[in-house]
Design a protein that fits this description.
Number of domains: 1
Radius of gyration: 21 Å
Strand content: 5-15%
Largest sheet: 6 strands, parallel
């Protein structure tokens, strides 16, 4: 099993953006059967988007076109198809472009009494990701967006590694069995994985920390996976990777300031947090913060830059003497070098969910 090394966009002429709808774009609640049955009766106005996400998605296609690329946007939802009309109306209300959307037929599982399948999303999402990939150009890059409510980071990583043939089908089968994917669904996934054209396609996997899972939990998945606390952080990484421009990042930041009450200091701290965790280079952070500062969204940096340099030099000196703590980037470097231990990741995430539910 070969390791994945993070690369910036190769300048591919075709890029696919895949978004999980629930908890990633919309703040959807369907953790109980009662909530699930209530979904089809909600109006588009009842649907509340995550702050900044609309501005970010709107930027993807124009920025791709400016760079001479073709971009496609697909949504994947665990909500039932009965809510499709409302979701499409919400996307139209938000003026969000997209090329396709898939829903999970939850009600068929209710009728058949397969209640475990209501909450099991790994098999469903893997199947839909692979099924859609079959119809895409073999050289298309992909950027995936999910959340920490289920196992999106693991699901997307399995998809990326199976597509690139970094893991063989026997490993995929074992992983599907470990999360109790329905045998019929598992066979469909394995067939799709065996027949899809191999491609080292997935450049980034973003995880919206909707339930505030500690970011360190995702370190085992390597640097391709980026846990983010808000969409300014997501936009900053996309900008650094060459998918959007700094003007688009500023629009996302402005949305967080206006709709979610982010102060200039909080916006600046969001960028600094990415640097501390090793996801954003200092030079990229400086360039983005300068753009935001010009628009009055973050504080000026002249005095702060000097203070940061002094702190960094002092910290480096202490570490050279064996004192102080390593940065998160230094801690992550060894994890990024090896193959993913999916069993350990699944066990860790399952334990975290049990603690959060008081079990």
């Amino acid at each position: 099993m070969r390791p994945y090394q993070v690369e910036r966009s190769r300048g591919a002429s075709f890029v696919i953006y895949r978004w999980d709808l629930d908890k990633t774009y919309l703040r959807t609640d369907f953790d109980s059967v009662r909530q699930l049955l209530r979904l089809p009766f909600q109006s588009p106005e009842d649907k509340v988007e995550v702050p900044g996400v609309v501005e970010l998605i709107r930027a993807l296609k124009p920025c791709a076109k400016q760079a001479g690329r073709t971009a496609r946007i697909f949504f994947l939802s665990a909500s039932p198809p009965q809510i499709g009309k409302t979701i499409r109306a919400k996307l139209e209300l938000d003026e969000v472009p997209y090329d396709g959307i898939v829903f999970k037929n939850q009600l068929q599982y209710l009728v058949r009494g397969k209640f475990h399948n209501l909450r099991e999303q790994v098999g469903f999402k893997l199947g839909e990701l692979l099924r859609n990939r079959h119809g895409q150009p073999v050289d298309a890059e992909e950027v995936l967006f999910g959340d920490d409510w289920e196992s999106d980071a693991v699901t997307y990583s399995i998809y990326a590694d199976a597509l690139a043939r970094r893991i063989d089908l026997s490993v995929v089968r074992r992983l599907l069995d470990s999360v109790r994917v329905d045998p019929k669904v598992a066979e469909e996934v394995l067939t799709l994985a065996a027949t899809v054209k191999p491609a080292d396609a997935v450049r980034r996997i973003f995880v919206n920390l909707e339930r505030r899972t500690p970011p360190a939990i995702f370190r085992r998945l390597g640097r391709r996976v980026v846990p983010t606390f808000n969409y300014l952080q997501t936009a900053a990484i996309l900008c650094a990777d060459g998918y959007i421009d700094r003007e688009s990042v500023a629009r996302v930041a402005a949305s967080l300031a206006h709709s979610a009450g982010y102060t200039p200091e909080r916006l600046a701290n969001s960028l600094a947090d990415l640097c501390r965790r090793g996801h954003l280079d200092r030079a990229d952070e400086v360039a983005i913060r300068d753009e935001l500062a010009r628009k009055g969204l973050t504080p000026g940096r002249r005095g702060e830059r000097m203070g940061q340099r002094l702190r960094m030099r002092a910290g480096a000196g202490l570490r050279a003497l064996g004192w102080g703590r390593r940065s998160q980037a230094e801690k992550d470097s060894s994890l990024a070098a090896g193959p993913i231990d999916y069993d350990a990741v699944l066990s860790e995430l399952d334990g975290l969910r049990r603690v959060s539910k008081g079990k």
